[in-house]
Design a protein that fits this description.
alpha+beta; Aminopeptidase; 5-stranded mixed sheet; 23% strand
Length: 169
Amino acid sequence: MPEDSGFTIRAATEEDVPRLMGLIWDLAVYEKLTHEVVATEESLRGSLFGESPAAEALLAFAGDEPAGFAVYFHTYSTFLAQRGMYLHDLYVSPGYRRRGLGTQLLRRVAAIAVERGCGRFEWVALDWNTDAHRFYEDLGAEMLPEWRTFRAVGDSLRRLAEGGRVGRE
């Protein structure tokens, strides 16, 4: 499928935080995870553009209209003894899907990974999102069925750090 040349992709700036926050909310609605969103414009600004940024973001536009985004950060592989790139979020607004924008965003992050000498580029997709699975596989990505994601968040994270059990007690 030809890529739509009407899109512009650039690194997000601090001035883009309100646009980015709106797209993050749209992603949460799509993934049925709005109950997990605690980010604010202030916390997003600090984590992306503060003294020690935790991640980077690309913002895609159709004209002046925000159309999608990608958030990514570096990881490290002991097996490769090399850093990698992790795509945390890739989102394209519904009106701009199936026009090549998701591919453009993914390729842009992959190009950044290559430019920075990364040995890996990884991401996850929700198990029910078969459209995403097909999209990634059509681009040549390999699904790793033997890996499972584990997470400790909030009180569970604090309990783990203090020597307690992660799960509910």
